Write the structure tokens for this entry.
Amino acid sequence: MAASGLLLSHSSNLCFRKTQFPKTELLKAKTFSELGFVTSQLGGVKIERNQPFAKPIGAVRRPAVQPVARRVCPFTGKKSNKANKVSFSNHKTKKLQFVNLQYKKLWWEEGKRYVKLRLSTKAMKTIEKNGLDAVAKKAGIDLRKE
């Protein structure tokens, strides 16, 4: 028989019983493991956990999923449109109509270099008509960063 709610019987079964804790001890029991050690029935391996696992020093936390570029044009602000897909039987299902975004290298006259941008085809027509500097200034985009 062991402390804190663990009952080790001779028939090699692990049994847990509910113990009565004051509220302060219950909070401590949640943060730290209730069991000091457990001996495995298979190989006599001793598993100890006195403190919660700590991150190694200098460990870099990375997101599980890499961020994906949004389907929004930075120059015109165009984004996907919600629409219905209508079948022959007139059954409507929801769908998204995405913006026609393209990766394009454009010559930036003021910076004397090419700038690679992801923009909609509508923005390409607007840039041809008004110029890259004027459209970027109106959209509030600083081309020097890119």
Strands lie at 6-8, 14-16, 37-39, 46-48, 81-86, 92-97, 101-108, 113-120.
